[in-house]
């Protein structure tokens, strides 16, 4: 039925809320974010566009229907003109402090430009008034009574029938008529205008019981539809409830006190008890605990946190207690940025939604014109009965509303965006949610995406010494060096041999491009590559063979030497993430080809590609060369994704159809630069996004097919005289509810690819 999420929400004005004066706007371009409780559907959006387009100084309008927000870019000295234009449509504008921030009640007393810009909690924002249930039930009883009396008496125009019908219309119809008149004043044929004409026409041709029943059914359907759409609206809104409003903070006197989280400055020291939610982003300074990060990153298992680790607002402290230093203000935490991004994404129309909007703009006036011809031509040209053909035309008017078609897309897209956010996948707009279904090829950076981005000791081969003894000597030299290879050996020793302290090193020397050396217990010890061995005159055939094998496998090989002998050979490599092999396998099951692009040497790149099962790998690439490869992939496949860190691979990310940023939690730049941000380092979220995208596209197609099919069927039934007004209302209601609930299925979508078939 109605494209309005709650046409009953439009039936009554919220009570005025008094505020404080809004500071005068500068004449340069600026943006207002306005919450409009009565803007529940494309009907109101169309009206607002028509009215605000006539206001000089308004440059751009961006609507977010499910959040009931309008963002206006303007260059007016005073926004009163914009606010007055909105009020002229019987709507109450409520100014928000900033895009994505909670709305602030507007003043409607004093001057029109007065507004409250002080922050208020979301619960204080005016909600759309809905028809009282008692009034709706009384109207329904009156309409049913009119039908019964007309049936029993056989007279649809008796005084009793007229009285009951008028009572039903008076109880449920004033809001519809008021909105319908506002639409007609601005030459807009929305559902309120169409219903007003249909009910009035039914009354004029003596169809009193049916006129009453149509109005009551319309109001009842709006109430049902409003509740269904609230689920989609609240899906994102529930994210806002994840962050606690209070936080335990250490004061200057050292005492711990509970304060308002919104006022905490960066650098403050906070404490979290077991079972509590983290209130602000920060870095652990004392204590350790397992933290459930599912609300932010979608990780299924708690993550152990200790000193130096990051924690995010909205996550749950499972076990121990810890202290952390605040690193971001309340309104700029990772969760706050996620919420803002998802809310802004809702305002970016997906391709299907843009098509539907254009289609509806043609469809409604076309069917309205057909209805006029049906009402006039048969009686004039064929001698048909005026009453019969006018009745058929009224049925066509109800069918003329493209409500189900128009509302299906935003509900489906928002449900998909909310489901992605819950899984730790931040999608910047419906366009990317749709495009993901078409991905045929994905290019991936190696370091930090496929691999951990941190070298580790991959292999250790003892030759002339016990392995533990060799590692102890190697760790003594490695601890004095800042080279990544030395760091890998040092970290390995710290994890596995920390009980034994490495010996002291005298005369330590770093040999650039070769390795390190020093004197341990009076003996010269060297740790370096094959070049160092050659320059030192150390010849060991077995060591050379092992080093060649390790380097052929993509590892960096170094040898430990003492007294002219090779004690051991070590292979250091950037380790593959535990989830990368699973992620690549899932992509292949989905029919997506994979390509690795890396600045690392070709041998190391090829070795990693073989290990994880990537189709193709290119190494030793500069950023410009990565860009050229992505461009070639786009020309070949049409839709190509690129996965990187969101910064270093910027040219390739920008050229790809969709750019994915890995591990974006807590990173402003990654969230801002990528089209899709994977909020932790789990590459398995990439195939999950593709699965969600394909299901979103499938549901969009189902909804469009159902809406158009039902409209076409009832168009034929109406012209043939087999459809009644109340049947048309029921069909419209059914179609709207069908597409809404079908779209809401995405909120519970299983993102596993079990049984997935290759994408064609």
What does this structure look like?
By secondary structure, the protein is of the alpha+beta class. The protein folds into four domains: 18-124, 2-Layer Sandwich (Alpha-Beta Plaits), CATH 3.30.70; 133-235 and 346-412 and 698-748, no CATH class; 244-332, Calcium-transporting ATPase, cytoplasmic transduction domain A (Distorted Sandwich); 451-576, Calcium-transporting ATPase, cytoplasmic domain N. 46% of the residues lie in helices and 18% in strands. It has 25 helices and 26 strands. Strands 14-26-25-24-15-22-23 form a seven-stranded mixed beta sheet. A six-stranded antiparallel beta sheet has the order 6-5-7-13-8-11, with no helix packed on it. A hairpin with a 2-residue loop joins strand 18 and strand 19 (523-528). The longest helix is centred in the last third of the chain and has 36 residues, at 685-720. The two termini are 35 Å apart. Mean pLDDT is 80; it is low at 1-28, 98-129 and 754-760.
Shape call: elongated
The major β-sheet equals: 7 strands, mixed
Proportion in helices: 40-55%
Please report the number of helical segments: 25
- How many strand elements? 26
Number of domains: 4
**What structural category do the secondary elements indicate?**
alpha+beta
Spatial order of the strands forming the largest sheet: 14-26-25-24-15-22-23
Instruction: Report the sheet-strand fraction.
Output: 15-25%
| pLDDT < 50 stretches | 1-28, 98-129, 754-760
Task: Give the termini separation.
Answer: 35 Å
Mean pLDDT: 80
- The radius of gyration over CA amounts to 34 Å
